[in-house]
Design goal:
Length: 382
C-alpha cells in the first residue's frame, strides 16, 4: 500500500499526524527498495540505565534509586518493575548494557552518534542511516524510503544538528517528516482508524504508541527506515530527562507516565511485527542518547551521563534472549564488552544488508565513509 493523496492519518490521543515535507512531489515518487527495514525508537532525553534495563538491586539506595526490579523471561536478567510487558518478552530481545561515549555530555552529541555513527564538527552534518538507505534505495510502492515520526527532534539545549538529516547526501535523501496537527490541509497518509480498535488500543492512546503503530504500517507498506521520536524536546514537558525539577522531569514521572508508555508501545510493536511475519526482516532498536548519573542528585533526579547506558535490539536477524556487555556494580561505566554508538550504527547497516565499511560517492572526487573505525556487533546476530 503506497502513500496517496486521499489517505488520511489519524492518531488517537495525539491528533492527526500530518505529512509535512518541503517537496511533496519528490517524496511521493521516491520509493523504498529491498525487503529489510529498520525501526529506530529514539528515546529522546536519555533514559536512566538504572531505571530501565540495568537496575542494581544490591546497590546503595542513592545508586539503586526508588524503584524495584522484576525477573524477566531470561533467567538471571532483571529490569525495572514498571516494564512488566517487556520483561515477559525479554526472550525476544538482545540487550546491550555497555553503551558509552566520551563526547560532551549533551543531548545533541548523543543524538548524532547513535543515528549517524559520527560526531559533526565545525558545522558538519553527517547523514542519518535512513538517508543513506534513501540514497541506495530503488523506487518501490510509491512510498518514501525514510520517514521520521511524528516530526524532527526540536530544541534540547544546544543549537546544533540532532543527526536526523541527510547531511552531505543532499535534499533528495532528507527524511519525510510527520508532524502532529489537529487538522491538516496537506497530503496525509495511512489512516490509523482503518486499524482494528483492539490493535490501536494495544499500542496505547499516546503519541508515541500511535507513532509505533504508524511505524509498523509504514514498514509493511515498503518504507525502509522509520525513526520514531518519543519526545521532541526535554523542556517543560515530561520526558526521559529526569534532572528532578522543572523545566525537566522527575523519577515520579518515569513511574507514572514515561515507563508505562514505553512498555505498552514497545511490547505491542514487537507482537504486531511478529504476528505479521515482519520481525525477522525488521530490526527494532530502542536507545537514548546517553545514560544518567549513577547516583541521585540533590533533587532526587539524575543528570546526564554518557559513561554507560543500555540499548535494546529485536528482530532483523538478531539473537533472542541475549545480553551483551555489562556495567559495573554502580552502573557508572562498562565492565564487560564496551560498545560505542558507531558499532550500534554499523549493526543497523548490517541488518539492512549494507556494508558499513563502504563509502558513498558524493561526486566531484568526494566520498563519504558510512562508519569510521567501527564494526557491527557480530554477537548480536543469530
Amino acid at each position: 500500500m503506497g502513500l496517496t493523496r486521499r489517505e488520511v492519518l489519524r492518531a488517537g490521543g495525539g491528533g492527526a499526524l500530518a505529512l509535512a515535507c518541503p517537496d511533496l512531489s519528490r517524496a511521493m515518487t521516491s520509493g523504498a527498495g529491498g525487503d529489510r527495514a529498520l525501526i529506530l525508537l529514539m528515546l529522546v532525553g536519555g533514559p536512566s540505565q538504572l531505571e530501565t534495563w540495568d537496575p542494581k538491586p544490591e546497590a546503595p539506595s542513592e545508586v539503586r534509586g526508588p524503584f524495584g526490579s522484576i525477573a524477566t523471561a531470561v533467567p538471571g536478567v532483571r529490569i525495572n518493575e514498571y516494564l512488566p510487558r517487556m520483561a515477559q518478552r525479554m526472550d525476544r530481545l538482545t540487550l546491550i548494557r555497555s553503551m558509552h561515549h566520551d563526547a560532551a555530555p549533551i543531548h545533541e552529541t548523543g543524538h548524532q552518534l547513535v543515528q549517524t555513527g559520527r560526531l559533526g564538527r565545525h558545522g558538519e552534518e553527517h547523514p542519518h542511516v535512513g538517508s543513506v538507505v534513501a540514497r541506495l534505495s530503488k523506487p518501490k510502492s510509491g512510498v518514501p524510503p525514510f520517514v521520521v515520526v511524528p516530526g524532527p527532534i526540536g530544541h534540547t539545549g544546544v543549537n546544533v544538528s540532532h543527526g536526523q538529516t541527510a547531511g552531505d547526501l543532499g535534499r533528495a535523501c532528507e527524511p519525510f517528516h510527520l508532524r502532529t496537527e489537529l487538522s491538516s490541509p496537506g497530503i496525509k497518509a495511512f489512516d490509523l482508524s482503518r486499524e482494528r480498535a483492539s490493535v490501536r488500543e494495544s499500542y496505547g492512546q499516546t503519541r508515541f504508541g500511535q507513532g509505533c503503530l504508524l511505524a509498523r504500517r509504514l514498514v509493511e507498506s515498503g518504507v525502509r527506515v522509520v525513526a520514531v521520536n518519543m519526545f521532541e524536546t526535554v523542556f517543560n514537558r515530561i520526558s526521559w530527562d529526569c534532572h528532578g525539577t522543572k523545566p525537566f522531569s522527575t523519577l515520579d514521572d518515569y513511574a507514572a507516565e514515561v515507563l508505562p508508555t514505553l512498555d505498552q508501545a514497545f511490547s505491542a510493536l514487537l507482537d504486531d511485527l511478529q504476528q505479521r511475519g515482519l520481525l525477522e526482516t525488521t530490526l527494532v532498536v530502542a536507545t537514548g542518547e546517553f545514560g544518567r548519573t549513577p547516583r541521585l542528585n540533590a533533587r532526587g533526579g539524575r543528570d546526564h551521563w554518557p559513561g554507560v547506558w543500555s540499548a535494546v535490539l529485536a528482530g532483523g536477524g538478531t539473537q533472542r534472549g541475549h545480553v551483551i556487555g555489562a556495567s559495573d556494580r554502580f552502573a557508572s561505566s562498562p565492565s564487560e564488552r564496551p560498545v560505542q554508538p558507531a558499532e550500534l550504527v554499523a549493526t543497523m547497516y548490517r541488518s539492512l544488508g549494507i556494508d558499513p565499511s563502504e563509502s558513498q560517492d558524493l561526486g566531484q572526487g568526494q566520498s563519504l565513509a558510512l562508519v569510521e573505525g567501527a564494526e557491527p556487533i557480530e554477537e548480536a546476530f543469530a
